[in-house]
Structure formats: C-alpha cells, structure tokens
TrEMBL record:
This is Splicing factor U2AF 50 kDa subunit-like. GO terms for molecular function: RNA binding. Residues 1-22 are annotated as: Disordered. The lineage of its organism: Eukaryota, Metazoa, Ecdysozoa, Arthropoda, Chelicerata. The keyword Manganese does not apply. Pfam families: RRM_1. The gene is LOC113794942. It comes from Dermatophagoides pteronyssinus (European house dust mite). Residues 61-142 form the RRM domain.
Length: 150
C-alpha cells in the first residue's frame, strides 16, 4: 500500500537492495582453505580412489585421547555423526602410548560397509568443523587399515 517496500518472503531471489543473487550450492559445498606449511592438496576432496575406509585428520589431538572417559566420549561423538552416512563396520582412533611413537596418532579411521557410504561421508565431512578444527579427509587402503598400518 502506498508504495512502501514489502518485506514479504515471497519476493523473488535477488530482489532487494543489492541486486545480488546467491547460488545456494556455494553455501553448502565443502570449504577449501590453504594452511601455510601443510602439504596436502585437495583438502575437501578425498585423496585417492574411494575405498570403504575413510581417514579423518585434524579432528583430535593426542592429549585428548589420554583420559579413558574423554576417549570414549570422542569415539561415541564421532561414531554417532559418521553413522549418518552409512553402516560403520569398525572404527579406530590410535591413542598415545608413553615412550612409543604411535602410527596414525591424531587420525580417525572409519570403515564403512560400502565405498558408496564412505564417499557419502567424505563429501559431508570434508571441510566441516569438529571442536573448532577443520576436518581433512582421505580414503585409506583397507588392507593397510586391517594390518593397522596407520
């Protein structure tokens, strides 16, 4: 009425003061970021060919894995989130051992029943934040996973 602007939510996309239309796909896609000194390429697309095993990096710190209760809480949180993308066959989070260099320390390994479930998880988890850290993903060879060659 009387030429006053409407704040109706039925206004066409892009109408408003700026005249800018935002593609919703760019808001939901993975985030690419450069971290000085980090030599991993394709941070938000998993490295390698899809497998059933997904390696999640930059999610946990070794000191967070020392206390048994905190470790169990972290395992449960990650398992609950990752099970949204498919059935989890197994999961490993290597823990620190005093005086021993533990392979894979600080990484989380999730084994799905299918590589399709693993891909779905990778696409959803890459670039997301977990405890204020950006998650980096990579596919992992199932044979190495089963031999615990992290």
């Amino acid at each position: 009425m009387g030429g006053t602007p409407s704040s109706s939510s039925n206004a066409p996309s892009g109408s408003g003061g700026t005249g800018v239309t935002i593609n919703p796909a760019i808001l939901t896609g993975p985030v690419t970021m450069q971290v000085p000194g980090l030599q991993i390429t394709a941070m938000t697309t998993a490295i390698g060919n899809p497998t059933e095993v997904l390696c999640l990096m930059n999610m946990v710190l070794p000191e967070e894995l020392i206390d048994d209760e905190e470790y169990e809480d972290i395992m449960e949180d990650i398992k609950q989130e990752c099970s949204k993308y498919g059935q989890i066959r197994s999961m490993e989070i290597p823990r620190p051992i005093e005086g021993v260099e533990v392979p894979g320390l600080g990484k989380v390994f999730i084994e799905y029943n299918t590589s399709i479930d693993c891909q779905r998880a990778q696409q959803s988890l890459a670039g997301r934040k977990f405890d204020n850290r950006i998650v980096i993903t990579s596919y992992f060879e199932p044979d190495r996973y089963h031999r615990r060659e992290f």
